[in-house]
Amino acid sequence: MRNLLNHTSGLPDYEDILMKQSEGTPPEKIPQILDAGVLKLLEAQTSGKFPAGSRWEYSNSGYAVLAMIVEKVSGEPFGQFLRERIFKPLKMNDTIAYENRKNEVPHRAYGHSKKDGGWQETDQSPTSAVLGDGGIYSSIHDLAKWDRALREHTLLSEAEMRPALTPVRPTAGPAKTEEGAAVSYGFGWFLDPYQGHLRMWHYGETVGFRTAIQRFPDDNLTIIVLANRIDVNPQEMALKVADLYLATKPR
């Protein structure tokens, strides 16, 4: 499970497998896949990309498998587990694990992409229904509650959170991207500092949406950017805000 959490499992990314199998088919014609479908795709593979623990490579497959582990251990659907163990205790009333025909997202934003000089609604890709690595609809207000819970250790104790903030050390050498850039990664967080300040961060994107979060624990600063259009760079926007704030803080 540690290998799944820190992207050292060697599992190929299910999105790459799905797109390769559906090559030449327009995305809107590809049926949506669920977490269980991810497992079927992985079971059809003859090998992993590398021995578990030896290298680092980002793979959404790990988090889909983790969601299924949670379901097996808890005995309840992953979306329900999230609601009972995270969303309800933190009063994240506008946050939901969306499942088509099972629930609805009130007052939600829809994704948009620019095409032929105009805007086109682009929402729900073939992989949008996988809950282990996505499918969560939330708001800035609710994400602030989640951030506060992490900061004040009301969701997880400091000891329980510490492994998530410990950079992975693959057995074959330092963690690197495919391009050779160094990576500092824990459980679901990039951990490299920024301008001398301790930082944990991540970004995300799907059809019509771009998101970013930058957390500076020692500076009591968190920046969250949610965009429902693909022509913006939330990561860049978040760091501009960080620059303005950190410029007034001693290193």
What key phrases describe this protein's structure?
7 strands, two-stranded antiparallel ribbon, 251 residues, Beta-lactamase, three-stranded antiparallel beta sheet, globular, alpha+beta
- Proper CATH architecture of the domain at 2-137: 3-Layer(aba) Sandwich
Mean pLDDT: 95
Note the beta-strand portion: 5-15%
Gap from first CA to last CA: 36 Å
N-to-C SSE string, H for helix and E for strand: HHHHHEEEEHHEEEH
What class, by secondary structure content?
A: alpha+beta
Strand adjacency order, main sheet: 5-6-7
Q: Helical proportion?
A: 25-40%
Regarding CATH, which class of the domain at 2-137?
Answer: Alpha Beta
What is the gyration radius calculated from CA atoms? 19 Å
CATH superfamily of the domain at 2-137: DD-peptidase/beta-lactamase superfamily
Number of helices: 8
And the CATH topology of the domain at 2-137? Answer: Beta-lactamase
Strand tally: 7
Give start-end ranges of low-pLDDT stretches: none
User: How would you name the oligomeric state of the polypeptide chains in this document?
Assistant: single chain
Largest sheet features: 3 strands, antiparallel
Shape: globular
Report what the structure shows.
The protein has 251 residues and is of the alpha+beta class. It has a domain at 2-137: DD-peptidase/beta-lactamase superfamily (Beta-lactamase, 3-Layer(aba) Sandwich). The protein contains 8 helices and 7 strands; from the N terminus they run H-H-H-H-H-E-E-E-E-H-H-E-E-E-H. The strands form 3 sheets. A 3-stranded antiparallel beta sheet has the order 5-6-7, with helices on both faces. Strands 1-4 form a two-stranded antiparallel ribbon. A two-stranded antiparallel ribbon has the order 2-3. A hairpin with a 2-residue loop joins strand 5 and strand 6 (209-216). The longest helix is centred in the N-terminal third of the chain and has 14 residues, at 61-74. The protein is globular and about 55 Å long.
